[in-house]
Design brief:
The structure holds two protein chains of two kinds.
Chain A: H1 9-35, H2 39-51, H3 54-79, H4 87-105, H5 110-139, H6 143-165, H7 188-194, H8 207-224, H9 226-236, H10 238-243, H11 248-264, H12 266-275, H13 286-296, H14 301-324, H15 331-346, H16 348-359
Helix pairs in contact in A: 1-15, 1-16, 2-14, 3-8, 3-11, 3-13, 3-14, 4-5, 4-6, 4-11, 4-12, 4-13, 5-6, 5-11, 5-12, 8-9, 8-14, 9-11, 13-14, 13-15, 14-15, 15-16
Chain B: H1 2-33, H2 41-59, H3 62-86, H4 91-114, H5 138-142, H6 145-155, H7 160-178, H8 180-190, H9 192-197, H10 202-228, H11 240-250, H12 255-275, E1 279-280, E2 284-285, H13 288-303
Antiparallel strand pairs in B: 1-2
Classes of the chains: A mainly alpha, B mainly alpha.
């Protein structure tokens, strides 16, 4: 990778992602115009749809929780120089872990089932990431390819399990029976009701607290521990890391297991928090949203939190948009997501170099 | 006799399933041999599937649809090349961006233009689809099933794109291994510095490879929406781009072995539909999902070096810059 044009931190973490987002929104706006609708009206509808009422805000935060998990998963990999595209599959299999715990122990107290479910989500997600990680560490298989393949294998595995094993007897659609009463992550409106604040019902649940904790833990791990340091050194320069006595194999395994575990937590939010059963394809592309979120959030937990909120709002606002504008569907949001990945990731040099030149001083740092 | 008939029909289905895979994996072959990872096969194919179906629906001509499909896929290939070759962006990220963009854009435009919930209209007018044409005497041959049925089903009766894909394999092998362009293309994927030192533009070669890849993905996508089915539906490539990539890896980035991998994967796919619930000797009933996952499992095993070794072009994924 070429030496990046250095930017001041505020520009790197704030201005550049905003510029990239504006470029993505401009192009999406052009597409909406092409379709014959007003981009400005669409934007207003989306903002209103995402933040206009308590329940829509709840949905926004519910989606954002998903994206925090998958975004952190991508970011931990990126810090170690590993591009984990397998978040979707890891989340799917992580959900299997949550689901199995909830199906088996659903009659027990939530104080037991919820922690067990979270642990199972991490373990199953990490286990699914272990195979590509081990293959990269020991056999040098390209992690991008193996994680993509593992997404498809996960999808086939889950379809098989749901159609043949977990399906509720006497039912047509491939989903498991409903979890027991103990296997429920309390929703935020219930929790707030307990302390006397009324909040409109939505799937927004306490897995969001887990997401916040995960942000803090990831931050502490990456920047405040030896292992996190090893990860960053390895990600920046694998050769130097080896000279410094850092084991590449262990670093790859640690990074990928954490990444898979984080992705697996998506199942806690989606299944334990909202659906209360295992169903087909419940991650619904959230694993890929994680790529956009991590790129836009500059792989920092704070940035990921902000980017997750943005994408949560886009997804919730997009549903509202599709409802109100008959010629626009939710796929428009997927387009925006792709454009964000394009501008924040692949084309970031296009904005970075001129920005560095304009900001001068620190710009045009010496190469090499 | 029935077994014979079953086998012939299974092989004919294999050919139909393999065609887009062959086209897409040869597309990937050109770009990957030039040193650009081609994860964007899926998106380029999906864009072409939409563009060709939309134009065919609007104009009534499958050939105009083909042109639109190729144009759409090449445009995306140029976006990826612009990001990765000109601006030395991350190739994986650029390709994922394109895949996701198309997954959103195609149904969004389809809804806006045709108002059918993100699909294009059924292509049922004359000339709107690529249909198979029977070779001379195939009706006569059917009356003598051995070997006539093989002639009628396997050689005859396909559409133009199938024959194009079949011809493309030797053509690609020839271009890659027998022409100056092919030599340079392989060189730039292995050692771009050497190519640059010889006074040949690395960027221009990679751009040309990307355009070839785009054009072939365009044909593949057109096949999916206007030959294999009658119109575009959401996510209709359904991972075929990644499957083609797996075939390319399984074929070790060489044309003929890649063809073999495509046929193998297509055979598994065509067989999966027929094997549903059928007990096989020795293994019993094989779950369909296992057969669907098999190509991916095989590719992972191959990448791990458990079934032969797959050595990627050396410079793959590394942006080239003169001053490093």
């Amino acid at each position: 990778m070429s030496a990046p044009n250095r930017l001041p931190r505020w520009a790197d973490y704030g201005l550049l992602p905003i510029l990239n987002l504006c470029a993505a929104l401009l192009i999406s706006g052009a597409v909406i115009r092409l379709i014959g609708e007003s981009p400005w009206a669409a934007l207003k509808l989306m903002v209103a749809g995402a933040f206009g009422a308590q329940d829509s805000m709840g949905y926004t935060l519910f989606y954002a929780t998903d994206f925090v998990f998958t975004g952190l998963a991508v970011a931990v990999g990126v810090h170690a120089g590993l591009f984990n595209i397998g978040g979707e599959g890891q989340a799917y299999v992580g959900g299997l872990g949550v689901g199995l715990v909830c199906l088996a122990f659903g009659s027990l107290s939530p104080w037991i089932v919820v922690p067990l479910g979270i642990a199972a989500a991490c373990v199953f997600g990490a286990a699914w990431a272990f195979v590509p990680a081990w293959l990269q560490a020991r056999r040098g298989s390209h992690i991008v390819i193996t994680t993509i393949m593992s997404n498809f294998i996960a999808s086939a595995l889950m379809t098989y399990l749901l159609v043949n094993v977990l399906i509720k007897p006497g039912q047509q659609s491939p989903e498991s029976r409903e979890f027991g009463p103990g296997a429920v992550m309390p929703s935020v409106h219930q929790a707030m009701g307990r302390i006397g604040i009324s909040f409109a019902p939505s799937p927004f649940n306490l897995a969001s607290v887990l997401a916040l904790v995960a942000c803090v833990l990831v931050w502490a791990f990456i920047w405040r521990t030896r292992w996190g340091y090893a990860l960053r050194v390895f990600g920046q320069n694998p050769q130097a890391a080896v000279y410094a006595g850092i084991s590449p194999e262990r670093t790859i395994l640690v990074a990928m297991l954490i990444s898979g575990g984080l992705a697996g937590c998506l199942g806690v939010n989606e299944l334990m928090g909202s659906e209360h059963r295992i169903l087909l394809d419940f991650p619904g592309g959230a694993g890929f949203v994680g790529i956009a979120v991590a790129l836009m959030g500059r792989n920092h937990p704070a940035g990921i939190l902000a980017a997750s909120l943005l994408f949560g709002a886009l997804y919730q606002g997009g549903s509202q948009l599709a409802f109100d504008m008959p010629h626009v569907n939710r796929d428009m949001v997927v387009l925006i997501q792709g454009l964000v990945i394009l501008f924040c990731g692949a084309l970031e040099n296009v904005f970075r170099a001129p920005l560095a030149a304009i900001l001068g001083g620190a710009g045009g740092a010496p190469r090499r | 006799m029935d077994t014979y008939r079953e086998i012939i029909l299974l092989l004919a289905a294999t050919i139909r399933v393999a065609t887009p895979l062959v086209l897409a994996s040869l597309a990937g072959l050109f770009s990957e041999r030039s040193g650009v990872i081609d994860l964007g096969l899926e998106g380029k194919m999906l864009a072409a599937a939409f563009a060709s179906a939309a134009i065919s629906a609007a104009t009534g001509s499958a050939w105009l649809g083909l042109g639109a499909g190729i144009a759409a896929a090449v445009a995306l290939a140029l976006i990826i090349a612009f990001a990765c070759v000109t601006h030395r962006g991350n190739q994986v990220v650029a390709a994922m961006a394109v895949n996701i963009m198309v997954a959103g854009l195609a149904p969004a435009l389809a809804l806006a233009w045709f108002n059918q919930g993100g699909q294009t209209p059924q292509l049922d007018g004359p000339g709107q689809r690529f249909l198979g044409f029977a070779w001379p005497l195939s009706q006569f041959a059917r009356r003598h099933p051995v070997p006539g049925l093989a002639y009628a089903e396997l050689l005859s009766g396909h559409n133009a794109i199938v024959y194009f894909a079949a011809a493309l394999v030797p053509a690609s092998a020839w271009v890659l291994h027998r022409t100056r362009f092919g030599l340079r293309l392989r060189a730039v994927g292995e050692n771009p510095l050497a190519v640059d030192t010889a006074g040949i533009s690395v960027g221009a070669l990679r751009y040309r490879a990307s355009i070839i890849s785009g054009a072939l993905c365009g044909v593949a996508g057109t096949y999916i929406s206007t030959a294999a089915s009658a119109g575009f539906v959401r996510d209709m490539t359904a991972g075929k781009g990644y499957l083609a990539l797996a075939a390319l890896i399984f074929g070790k980035w060489r044309p003929y072995p890649t063809l073999g991998a495509c046929l193998l994967f297509a055979f598994a796919d065509a067989g999966a539909a027929r094997l549903q619930g059928v007990a096989l000797p020795l293994v019993g009933v094989v779950p369909v999902q296992f057969i669907i996952a098999l190509p991916y499992i095989l590719t992972v095993l191959l990448l791990a070096g458990f079934v032969g070794a797959a050595v990627a072009p050396k410079a793959i994924g590394v942006p080239y810059s003169k001053d490093e």
